[in-house]
Task: inverse folding
């Protein structure tokens, strides 16, 4: 009996001990949770009883150099469903499918999806969102949103770029300057019970979004329009595959215009400009990627005779040739076991170096390259920036495709002298040619000027480097004179514009494989020749019929310069030859804004403008050149009517 009592007492003591230990442990755990884990647990509770919806920030605008908005925002809405708050799923799905023009089954599946927040559709027009709001559907959230909008549609589409459904930049300036443009998202916070149903009479917390900053660019909408019209005209006339134009300030690298045709509508960037038929999703994506390619910087090509600018500049700088040196052209040169022909099959005969440049004679350039030798000539490729990217602020810039120096023999040296057997981008050529005529400075082509906030205050101003001494200023002046003579007396005569000193160089590049009868016609021109303020390159890919650069490309640059030089404030200075050989004379453009087409035609009877009317309306809303501009009396006048 005593033994049992002792055993029971021990058992009771042990149980009390265990209970005390457990109590102390629980109190310790409770103290730990209340003191050290309180913030964490409070956060968990807040997460359980709150719902968070983001508010998109307004993306910053993109402007041209004159303050014209080329990328803006359009107010829209996002329609979402909060599953635990939906009272009548069938009614919600029916109304949303009807108002949003969506498949009912698709919408119903989203409505029934057991997630905290299910997005039904983004970029919904305000009018549609307002109609849905009037139904007062429990569980349907309608949030403010912004959709990127491009007022000029296709204008500079490869340069400006576009955004995706999440308002993030995908290509072009939109993606390069994403960090400046995007802003900071805001939030809407609501309180719910454990089932996710919103608690009535509780305040809704709102964190306002921070708008993005605005980007000022070097683009000029008017110059871009002129260039696009000129390129579109030649591509249609020659039934060409595609084409590009780059217009830049050779003194500082500012890009005024960059055109690629075919282009696409920035407001519908996922719509192909043609019907490809039945294709897989992967094939369609590849087609879209091709459509979005900026040929001017993403693709390389053999520059052909426009590259003779670099060869001539290098030879003059090295003093291996003089303007009056004579050369003989029988129509070809024999280099090792190869016969390399001149474009003039019967030859140019005996000519000076200056005449060889004017005639774009291949044997002349083969000879001066041989005089320089591989090491020296190859060194000028580096001096003119051809072994590096230009540094332009656009994505996907390609690099040149060059021979290794050790692999360059006499044949390769000969073909390189006139722009064959290697490839560069069109922009690399524009940059190198600019150095040849601007005093020898290698500039950085660019589009971004500065970033400003909504008050117009500068957030950041961009600086771009220059590399001096590609060639001397003396040789650069000589190059400008020589290239001006190409336009006044040589293969670039179709670019001659009375009153303006224009220099340039033609090119007709045979595409690979050789003898495929496919060519790229091009011309690079600049003005004024004595103080270059603008340089422009045009490429016409696979023109039908006559394909020579002097015939196809040169007139395009003439048309562009005829429009943009007066617009840029570069006044014509007519020579006696201009007055004797051309119907020249200037006039101030009349103001036709707001007038009807009939009234405008009546007023223009006393002028000799070439009139072009765009649009289907009767009232003039825009004109180019602008009212009051002083232009050639025979210039083209473009009227936009709606």
Result:
């Amino acid at each position: 009996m005593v033994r049992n009592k002792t055993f029971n007492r021990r058992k009771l003591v042990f149980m009390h001990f265990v209970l005390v230990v457990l109590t102390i442990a629980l109190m310790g755990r409770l103290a730990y949770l209340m003191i050290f884990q309180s913030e964490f647990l409070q956060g968990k509770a807040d997460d359980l009883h709150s719902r968070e919806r983001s508010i998109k920030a307004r993306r910053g605008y993109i402007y041209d150099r004159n303050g014209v908005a080329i990328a803006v925002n359009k107010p829209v809405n996002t329609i979402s469903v909060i599953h635990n708050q939906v009272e009548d799923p069938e009614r919600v799905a029916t109304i949303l499918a009807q108002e949003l023009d969506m498949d009912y089954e698709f919408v119903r599946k989203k409505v029934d999806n057991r997630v905290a927040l299910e997005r039904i559709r983004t970029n919904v027009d305000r009018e549609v969102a307002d109609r849905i709001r009037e139904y007062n559907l429990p569980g349907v959230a309608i949030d403010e949103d912004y959709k990127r909008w491009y007022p000029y549609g296709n204008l500079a589409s490869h340069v400006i770029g576009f955004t995706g459904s999440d308002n993030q930049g995908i290509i072009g300036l939109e993606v390069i300057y994403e960090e400046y443009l995007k802003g900071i998202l805001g939030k809407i916070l609501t309180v719910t019970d454990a089932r996710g149903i919103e608690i009535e009479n509780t305040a809704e917390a709102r964190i306002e979004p921070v708008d993005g900053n605005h980007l000022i660019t070097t683009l000029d909408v008017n110059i871009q329009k002129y260039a696009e019209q000129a390129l579109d005209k030649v591509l249609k006339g020659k039934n060409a595959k595609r084409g590009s134009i780059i217009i830049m300030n050779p003194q500082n690298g500012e890009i005024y215009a960059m055109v690629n045709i075919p282009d696409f509508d920035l407001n519908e960037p996922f719509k192909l400009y043609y019907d490809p038929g039945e294709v897989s999703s992967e094939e369609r994506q590849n087609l879209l990627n091709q459509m979005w390619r900026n040929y001017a910087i993403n693709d390389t090509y053999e520059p052909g005779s426009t590259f003779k600018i670099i060869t001539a500049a290098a030879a003059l700088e090295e003093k291996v040739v003089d303007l009056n040196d004579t050369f003989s052209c029988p129509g070809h040169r024999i280099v090792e076991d190869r016969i390399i022909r001149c474009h003039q099959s019967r030859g140019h005969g005996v000519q000076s170096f200056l005449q060889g440049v004017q005639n774009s004679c291949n044997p002349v350039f083969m000879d001066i390259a041989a005089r320089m030798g591989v090491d020296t000539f190859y060194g000028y490729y580096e001096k003119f920036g051809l072994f590096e990217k230009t540094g332009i602020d656009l994505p996907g810039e390609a690099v040149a495709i060059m021979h290794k120096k050790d692999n360059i023999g006499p044949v390769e040296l000969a073909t390189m002298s006139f722009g064959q057997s290697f490839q560069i981008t069109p922009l690399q050529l524009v940059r190198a040619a600019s150095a040849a005529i601007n005093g020898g400075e290698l500039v950085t082509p660019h589009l971004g000027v500065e970033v400003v906030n909504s008050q117009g205050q500068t957030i950041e101003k961009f600086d771009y480097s220059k590399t001096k001494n590609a060639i001397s200023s003396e040789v650069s002046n000589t190059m400008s004179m020589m290239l001006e003579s190409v336009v006044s007396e040589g293969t670039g005569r179709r670019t001659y514009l009375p009153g303006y000193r224009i220099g340039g160089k033609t090119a007709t590049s045979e595409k690979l494989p050789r003898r495929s009868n496919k060519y790229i016609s091009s011309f690079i021109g600049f003005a004024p020749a004595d103080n270059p303020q603008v340089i422009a390159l045009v490429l016409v890919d696979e023109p039908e019929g006559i394909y020579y650069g002097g015939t196809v490309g040169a007139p395009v640059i003439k048309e562009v310069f005829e429009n943009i030089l007066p617009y840029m404030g570069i006044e014509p200075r007519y020579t006696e030859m201009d007055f004797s050989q051309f119907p020249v004379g200037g006039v101030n453009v009349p103001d036709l804004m707001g007038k009807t087409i009939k009234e405008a035609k009546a007023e223009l009877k006393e002028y000799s403008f070439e009139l072009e009317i765009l649009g289907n309306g009767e009232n003039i809303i825009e004109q180019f050149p602008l009212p009051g501009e002083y232009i050639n009396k025979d210039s083209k006048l473009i009227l936009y009517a709606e």
In short: The first helix runs from residue 2 to 35. The CA atoms of residues 456 and 566 lie 30 Å apart.
